Amino acid sequence: MKEQCLGKIELIYSNILKEVDKTLTNTNDYDSFKEYIVSDNFLNTINNIQDDDLNNTTYQINRTDLNDKNNIYYEIISKTTYNKFSKQIVAYVKIKNPFQEDSLSENKDNSQDVEDSEESDLNKLKSSDENIEVSQKEQEKIKNIEDINCSDLVIMFGYKEE
Asked: Per residue in 72-121, pLDDT tens?
């Protein structure tokens, strides 16, 4: 029974890895990655498990909020019943956001009211060299994202038997 519970958890973990990999290729910033990972679409895709061998095993996935800005946590509950016996295992998964939170945009929004006209004129007159530097930084960021292994982002950090 324990193996059946763990088997179901492994299937869910595998689906999470696949979805995080898709999310990584389809997003390019902190907010869009986080929005998709906490969305119902993400959970629905993970819940799409095709298995014939684990018929008497049920599962539930819950998002747990631990007030951590860079990580998203899920709790996976797997329960197997056979005759009068039942076994339940709870596993915890942490998904790291590979993107840095854009604190510059928050500061920019807060400081726009305070910014005087001379500074905004200077910002409008950025040279093309600075724009090239920005695009090079974006290209480096994309290369770094391509080097990320999604199994480094999804960590199963514990489980307990009940």
From this structure: 999 999 999 988 899 999 999 999 999 887 654 444 444 444 444 445 44
How far is 46 from 56, CA to CA, in rounded Å? 19
Centre a 10 Å sphere on the Cβ of residue 95 and count the other Cβ atoms it contains: 24
C-beta separation of 96 from 153 below 8 A: yes
For the chain, the distance separating the N- and C-terminal CA atoms, rounded to the nearest angstrom, is 12
Cα angle 34, 154, 17; round to 5: 90
**Pairwise CA distance, residues 78 & 9, whole Å:** 7
Contact 79, 87 (CB under 8 A): yes
The β-bridge relationship of strands 154-161 and 85-96 is: antiparallel
* Burial (Cβ within 10 Å: 0-12, 13-18, ≥19) of residue 116: exposed
**What digits encode the pLDDT tens for the residues 68-86?**
888 999 999 999 998 889 9
